[in-house]
Specification:
By secondary structure, this protein is mainly α. Helix 3 packs antiparallel against helix 4, helix 4 packs across helix 12 and helix 10 runs antiparallel to helix 12.
């Protein structure tokens, strides 16, 4: 007996059970899944946090990027299937009836499925928030109240993670073991980059210079480039071709890291502007700030259009 295939078979039965038990819950599970989308965190949650607490937002940004980047690498290394095409490809059912998994607008994701990026990203991000709240309560609450607060927050954390995992099962984008692995990977990533201790990297990245951070971003971008895979299986069995997400998740990762690299590069250029001469100072500052919107709104989109045109 193939253990991995048996695990997927049991996971498929669980997915079918969830879809059957909650047949009219699209809006609820879709909302949970979209809330856990890393792009949602990157474009809305982290900017809102930045307006309230800079250190918290910085930690959230770092953990989100590292969680997405490590998730992409893990998916390439594990090369696991997604439920909606696995049920059509596997031989575990023999000539018997295969489960008919319902496909939704969120089902049609390309690329490997393990670990779940939504679960890993959400678990890492919420872990950062949880730890910051607990640190902020230190010295303000008694030990008894802090323990009660910690128990309450961890309970809410686990409920949210269960809901995120269930939403990914409901949409048939992941097997149960993939969501569990995403949870473990997310907590491990957040612990490594925000907790204090000799085994963590928190102090190293917080005290790193901008050139080192920029070099790390370039290395991450280089590692992130990889081959598209399993497109054939996805297109063969997907029932909602018009809803297919044409950009695999690693494009999102590269985009996030490139954004950070661009920000670091501009900041390094701003720090290098000479201050001895007023005219030179304002002239360099004007050129620097004039180039930035040009790149963001004209240069980069034009390059993207040219690259897309060459592909077709």
């Amino acid at each position: 007996m193939n253990v991995s295939e048996e695990i997927r078979r049991l996971g498929t039965a669980g997915i079918k059970s969830i879809q059957t038990t909650f047949p009219r819950s699209d809006s609820f599970f879709f909302s949970i899944s979209r809330f856990a989308d890393p792009l949602y965190s990157f474009t809305l949650i982290i900017p809102l946090a930045a307006g309230m607490h800079t250190v918290l937002a910085t930690d959230m940004m770092m953990v989100s990027v590292m969680a997405e980047w490590s998730n992409t690498l893990l998916k390439w290394m594990l090369m696991d299937h997604r439920p909606f095409w696995w049920v059509q490809e596997t031989t575990v059912y023999g000539k018997g009836l295969r489960p008919a998994l319902r496909q939704t607008p969120l089902t049609c994701e390309t690329g490997p499925g393990s670990p779940s990026g939504h679960v890993q990203g959400a678990s890492a991000l919420m872990y950062v928030v949880l730890q910051h709240v607990l640190r902020a309560s230190k010295g303000r609450l008694s030990d008894g109240r802090r323990r009660y607060l910690a128990m309450t927050l961890w309970m809410l954390y686990m409920i949210l993670m269960v809901l995120v995992g269930a939403s990914r099962l409901y949409t048939a984008t992941h097997f149960p073991h993939q969501t569990l692995l995403g949870l473990v990977a997310g907590v491990a990533t957040a612990w490594l980059f925000v907790d204090e201790g000799q085994c963590t990297l928190t102090e190293r990245w917080r005290s790193a210079s901008r050139p080192k951070m920029l070099l790390a971003s370039v290395v991450m971008i280089a590692v992130s480039f990889g081959a598209y895979w399993l497109q054939r299986l996805m297109v063969r069995h997907v029932m909602c071709v018009s809803r297919v997400r044409s950009q695999p998740r690693h494009n999102v990762v590269i985009g996030m890291v490139c954004t950070l690299s661009l920000m670091l590069a501009f900041q390094m250029a701003a720090d290098a502007v000479p201050t001895s001469d007023v005219r030179l100072f304002y002239g360099c500052q004007f050129m620097l700030h004039a180039v930035k919107p040009f790149l963001l709104f004209l240069g980069i989109p034009r390059i993207a259009r040219l690259a897309k045109h060459k592909q077709h």
